[in-house]
Amino acid sequence: MAQILVYGAVISAIYAMLAVGFTLIFGVARILNLAHGAFYALGAYGVYVLTAYGHLPLLAAAVVSVLFVAGFGAAMERVLVRPLRRSTLAVLMITLAVSLMVEQVLLLIFGSEARNVPSMVDATVAIAGVDISGQRVIALTGGIVILSGLWLFMQKTRLGAAILAVSQDAEGAQYMGIPSDRIFSIVMALSAGIAAAAGVLVAPFQTVIPGMGLLPLVKAFAIVIVGGLGSIPGSILGALLLGYTETIVAFNISIEWAQIVSVAAVLITLILRPAGFFGKRAAF
Amino acid sequence: MRSMIDWIGAGVAIAVLASVPLLAGSNYLVVVLTVALCNAMWAASWDFMSGLTGRENFGHALFIGAGAYTAGFLNTALDLNPWWGLPSSAIVAVLFSLVIGIPTLRLRGPYFALAMLSGATVMQSLTIIFSEYTGGQDGLNGIFPILDSQTAYYYLTLAIAVATVASLKFIALSPWGTILRAIRGDEATCQAAGINVSFYKITALMISAAFAGLGGALYAHALLQVGPDLFAVILSINTIILVYIGGMGTIYGPAGAALLFSLLIEKLRFLSEYRLWVYTLILIFILFFLPKGLVAPAWVWLRERLSGRRRKRAEDAVA
Q: What pLDDT, in 10s, does the model give residues A188-209?
């Protein structure tokens, strides 16, 4: 029982980081970013390269990797997505193309075998009688810190207020002198950075392979649909629900069935309450 | 006059395809073309649903894989006559389309695209998780051929593919297809006009799924093997790229693109690991510079030339 509580919390924190970034860029810019999983993979590979070849200390490698992916996200938004913004299908296709491209580049450079990233700490900690590796604790606390930081940023700063304004009405915000195009780039960088941070935090205990971004992307969809597309509190709640349900299923039934939870959750949500928990916009 | 040229063009294309086994010295080209015809069925069926109604399907591989695995199961696990695989694969694919389509196609927004993508991805991981039944990464092997000779099987596939493209195009040109295109134009207006929009979208998805599943079964019996790659995202993307190259909403364009492109890819085999790279670059190029595609506009241009008219009208590509 305690085991489920602790492990579920770690998974939920990672899912929440992925889903919040995904829902943020959709809520603000209406961009459905299929390259979100690629950001996660890039973050993990970034920290691998910087530690294994650059011999940077882990923390520095993590920061550099996150900043790099954030820049990559902003560049992608500016160069590839913005000219095609008018067509949803084209945006979906171009972000998917980016995600395939990233996976191919990683495959060509690093091959398909899994890479090992050293843990930030080697110790194991006991929480409520459950032994858990220190890295998982770091992932949990890192997730909580980043998400609270994001919340403070959105609530307390001028830029955060501008982002909220654009998400409510991009055109109206533009009339108020908020440059929505620049906001889109900033939000894409933010969303990419958070996804990369999730990748960095899980890299030591996950298999780092070029295709590692695909399943988290699917999980992020599921969470965002359960929580309501475009809602940040919704995606945190959705992440907790999905993270814990998966952990409970994995512990009590089998890891295999845990994979089906996300799809089942999506279908149930769409049948019962298509807008999700906190979806503001009517989905019909 | 112009529709006359269309008929002649279709006739010439079929005649060329039918004469390939007679002219080609090797069986290899015949097998490549059989697979190309399956690709043509997948691209045309994708285009029927998504090209006409504008609802992006990002997991067409779900139907393809479902069809192929159904054919494989019936043949390897139940020892049924391979012919049974064809109708049953279409039926199973339609069931999958209902599971995803009924909850998601009633909604506006990206739900359908996301659900299809996740559905296919999860099916792919399920085939690996339940490997005692599905053969895991190796897939199902030892599927029997439907017909003994590869040439005969090629003609069977050709007949089914031609029938598929013809019937999809026929529906697309009928009043039914007009409604689907109207839904792409303005869903709210269609609803206001008393059209049951969800019904049309779901039925279109069922039709699309049936032909995709059938194509999957034909593919399984051509290669005598199915694997988890048939559910892969890359297969869905490949199909969408073919539709883009062909010209969205034209049905014949994507089918033609599938045939031409498969031959081109055979020529590009030396690129091996860079192949996906080339794919994605082509995709990005087309998204930016050729939003109307290549094959259908080329045919429209040729037709205008043949009918003696100098005026080039790009809108014809849609008609």
A: 999 999 999 999 998 888 888 8
So what's the pLDDT on residue B18? Answer: 80
Domain boundaries, chain B: 2-317
Query: With an 8 Å Cβ cutoff, are B287 and A259 in contact?
Result: no
Continuous segment of H or E residues that includes residue A124? strand A124-127
Give pLDDT, residue A32: 86
Pairing of strands A124-127, A130-133: antiparallel
pLDDT at A38: 93
The pLDDT value recorded for residue A284 is 34
Asked whether B294 and B301 are in contact (CB, 8 A), the reply is no
Please give the mean pLDDT across all residues of chain A: 85
Q: What is the pLDDT of residues B210-227, one digit of tens each?
A: 999 999 999 988 888 888
Q: Is B25 exposed, middle or buried (0-12, 13-18, 19+ CB in 10 A)?
A: exposed
Q: Please give the average per-residue pLDDT across A98-127, as a whole number.
A: 81
Domain spans of chain A, in order of start: 2-210
**pLDDT band, residue A227 (cuts 50/70/90):** confident
What pLDDT is attached to residue B302? 82
* Predicted structure pTM score: 0.81
Question: Which residues are CB-neighbours of B4 under 8 A, at least 6 positions away?
Answer: none
Q: From residue B154, how far is each of A170, B79, B137, B148, B221 by CA, in Å? A: 55, 23, 28, 11, 11
Q: Residue A133 belongs to what H/E stretch? A: strand A130-133
- Residue A237 CA to residue A227 CA, distance in Å, equals 6
- Which chain B residues have a beta carbon less than 8 Å from that of A214? 121, 233
List chain B residues with CB under 8 Å of A94: 284, 287
Question: Could you give the 3-state DSSP secondary structure of residue A217?
Answer: helix
Architecture per CATH, domain B2-317, reads as Orthogonal Bundle (1.10)
- Give the best residue of A22, A80, A81, A89 to mutate against chain B (max B CB count within 10 A): A89
Cα–Cα distance list, A173 to A74, A230, B29, B244, B262 (Å): 20, 17, 59, 35, 48
pLDDT score at B154: 87
Q: Residue B293, CB half-sphere, CA atoms under 13 Å: how many?
A: 32
| 3-state SS, residue B36 | helix
Q: How far apart are CA B201 and CA B217, in angstroms?
A: 24
Q: What residues in chain B have per-residue pLDDT under 50?
A: 310-314, 317-319
Distance CA B5, CA B200 (A): 31
Higher per-residue pLDDT: B9 or A121 = B9
How many secondary structure helices (H) and strands (E) does chain B include? 15, 2
Tokens 């053969």 identify what position?
B135
Instruction: Collect all residues with Cβ–Cβ distance below 8 Å to B157 and sequence separation of at least 6.
Output: B34, B37, B38, B218, B222
Contact status of A231 with chain B (Cβ, < 8 Å): no
- Predicted pLDDT at B316: 52
Q: Check CB contact under 8 Å for B114 and A32.
A: yes
The full DSSP string for A15-31 is HHHHHHHHHHHHHHH--
Q: What DSSP element (H or E) covers B226?
A: strand B225-226
